[in-house]
Amino acid sequence: MATMKDISKKANVSIATVSAVVNQSAFVSPELTDRVNKAIEELNYRPNAIARSLKKKSTNTVGVILSDILNPYYPAIVKGMDDVAINNNFSVILCNTSNDKSRFLSYLDVMEEKRVDGLILANISTQEDLLELEKRRLNFVLVNRRPPGYNTSYVGVNNELAIEIAVDHFSSLGYKRIAFIGGNSEISTSKERLNGFVKGMKKNGLQISNSLIFQGEYTQDSGYASVIKMLKEVQVLPEAICASSDLIAFGVIKALREQGIQVPEDIAVMGNDNNHFSGEFLVPLSTINHPTYEMGKLGMEMLLQGISEGANHYPKQIILTPSLVVRESCNFAHREKVITK
Amino acid sequence: MATMKDISKKANVSIATVSAVVNQSAFVSPELTDRVNKAIEELNYRPNAIARSLKKKSTNTVGVILSDILNPYYPAIVKGMDDVAINNNFSVILCNTSNDKSRFLSYLDVMEEKRVDGLILANISTQEDLLELEKRRLNFVLVNRRPPGYNTSYVGVNNELAIEIAVDHFSSLGYKRIAFIGGNSEISTSKERLNGFVKGMKKNGLQISNSLIFQGEYTQDSGYASVIKMLKEVQVLPEAICASSDLIAFGVIKALREQGIQVPEDIAVMGNDNNHFSGEFLVPLSTINHPTYEMGKLGMEMLLQGISEGANHYPKQIILTPSLVVRESCNFAHREKVITK
DNA sequence: GTGAAAGCGCTAACAG
DNA sequence: CTGTTAGCGCTTTCAC
Predict the structure, then answer these.
(1) Which PROSITE patterns did the record assign (chains A, B) (predicted)?
(2) Mean of the per-residue pLDDT values of chain A
């Protein structure tokens, strides 16, 4: 493959001149520019970004690490990131850890060796992982999840508020006995959502029953399992269920229906995050919308800004505001009946 | 950041020796190995993959180009690719064209400049795009879509068979008047699926009515719009609708329901591709399963094999077989009634 | 077994 | 304005 040297020979100019026209980094007389461009054309020359990176000590590529691309929460985030990356001439290396810690660590190694200019991570919930990350000399911003107390570059949504809104909605509809079915308690978003539940219940003067709080995973199966568990353990069923994610809500509703419990007639259900398919679920899901595309977009913008500003960068956090989406899973006029087993 | 030179000084060995122990590319006495490793530890050294790439003329990274990460068909494909990439010490640069041709071209440029070792493309349907691709000196394999007549490295699913299976299923249930609602007719999978429809209808001795064949996009909105169009244009409604993708089927069912037409009681609907949420759609969708994860996995395996084998590589095509998934959207005992407007 | 040295393709002083 | 040159950090002969 042709190199600048080949071009310089062919065009009878110095290699520096070639570089200057390729990068438009200095004025070159129209005549020479022409000769160079012609040679480039003829030899089908492409600058070698690897060589340039070695010299410039920057790669114009960033890594994106997330835990599970199959979770429908992420594709929009990734799209947001990719859109701004390409607009700024950056490439993104995608790393899908599949929730595997050792895989996460090996991605970190690779990213460091490949000298990415920065990293966006959507999978950091613990101090431990953060420490691991900070060991590397990498620019980074966290997205969606964050360890407790973390207060530098981050963009996420107000998870606490999300569930508060959900509880408010339930309360305004007259529901009082409300269950919460959450995700993995290690994950920051999951904690924040549970906090939001507690806060919302208190705010509305509603009583919290510990027997109606469940934690599991951010999956449909987990939501399903939690309901089965609840049905077994609890004497008086809740009037409404607040799920920590739409995927969980899907599982919840599935389990309920299989047990002959109608949604929303018997029990109301709210989701959270506004999955692409929530509107067309077995029963159209009322939920809380999360601006995921924005999150990815802003995350990447923040990272690139950090990269270009270097030490002058002033770190910040952006917290996006979620909003209520009313559909059919909890619109039923509330009755006073209490369901017992 | 420490370099091999730093290590070599600190450990009092030559730079070549450092390289040898880092890469285990030659025997080094245990003593020197120790000294080197100690120095590496102390200086927190990380090999510079950029420099290595420049020298070795290979980057251990591949590009993946696809048209729309938001389409639920792709995440599993990407996961399959990423899984095998990491296992082989490769990174993947994700490129999401958003169906934008100029963006596709600029991705190609970038991939060439960044000297990726290969490319997987899931968005190539036309001769034109293929030509554009072949201009670059890049190893590549096509996945999912392919231009007519293309017969080198490819992995996809038997789209024709998929729809044939769907038609067979309808036929076995007694449905005769069947509509087909397809995607963009430019896209290879879309054509193949339409062919499968025609083939299946003929095979089952069923009459094809051109007024019952629609093309649009692989989206819910498009499926919705096609049904509205059909309802307006057609005198005698079909008994069953064969959708080219689940997303389309979602739109179809939504439109039908809004018009007061029950699925499957009034009209049966089959999807295609087995979207993650098809089982929990408003009406659980009977569909055809596509092994998407496998497709990504095999595609990446094929590419990496091609890369390592170089000119000795013997190109091939892998066609995965889809399978019927029966749920509720076309199980209704068929009645002889004909619906007219 | 280990070290010296050339060179991958490019950028950026620095001279002229 | 244009050319010369010294590296960027690493791999890889080729001597010793």
Answers:
(1) HTH_LACI_2 (PS50932)
(2) 94
Place of tokens 């407790």: A148
Residue with tokens 């009645």: B335
CB atoms within 10 A of CB B93: 22
Q: Which nucleotides of C are covered by protein (CB under 7 A)?
A: 1-5, 7-13
Contact check, Cβ <8 Å, A72/B276 = yes
pLDDT for the residue numbered B313: 87
Other CB atoms within a 10 A radius of the CB of residue B206 amount to 16
Instruction: Give the Å distances, CA to CA, from B170 to A102, B157, B206, B215.
Output: 48, 21, 11, 20
B127-174 pLDDT per residue, tens: 999 999 999 989 999 999 999 999 999 999 999 999 999 999 999 999
Neighbours of B1 (CB within 10 A): 12
A333: pLDDT strictly greater than 70: no
Q: How do A178-181 and A323-325 pair as beta strands? A: unpaired
Domains of chain B: residue spans and CATH: 4-56 (1.10.260.40), 61-157+291-311 (3.40.50.2300), 159-290+325-330 (3.40.50.2300)
Q: Is A79 on the interface with B (CB under 8 A)?
A: yes
Can you tell me the distance from the alpha carbon of B223 to that of B210, in angstroms, rounded to the nearest whole number?
Answer: 17
Separation between the CA of B20 and the C1’ of C4 (whole angstroms): 15
Predicted TM-score of the model (pTM) = 0.94
Calpha distance A100→B33 (Å, rounded): 31
Q: Does A280 touch chain B (CB under 8 A)?
A: yes
Length of chain A: 341
Tens of pLDDT, residue by residue over B202-241, are 999 999 999 999 999 999 999 999 999 999 999 999 999 9
**Partner B contacted by A53 (CB < 8 A):** yes
Residue nearest to nucleotide C9 (CA to C1'): A51
A43, A94, A247, A285: best to mutate for the B interface, most B CBs within 10 A: A94
CA B51 to C1' D1, in angstroms, rounded, equals: 32
Which residues in chain B are contacts of A282 at CB distance < 8 A?
280-282, 284
As a rounded value in angstroms, the CA-to-C1' distance for A67 and D8 is 35
Question: Strand A213-214's sheet: what is its strand order?
Answer: A213-214, A178-181, A240-243, A268-270
For A46, the closest of B74, B95, B113 (CB atoms) is B113
DSSP lists the bridge partners of residue A134 as none
Minimal C-alpha gap between B93 and chain A (Å): 4
Residue A19's pLDDT is 93
A280 and B61 within 8 Å at the Cβ level: the answer is: no
Contact A79 B94 (CB under 8 A): no
Contact A75, B70 (CB under 8 A): yes
Chain B residues closer than 8 Å to A110 by CB: 49, 89, 91
Q: Is the pLDDT of residue A310 over 90?
A: no
Q: How confident is the model at residue B336 (pLDDT cuts 50, 70, 90)?
A: very low
pLDDT, tens digit (0-9, with 9 covering 90-100), for A219-229? 999 999 999 99
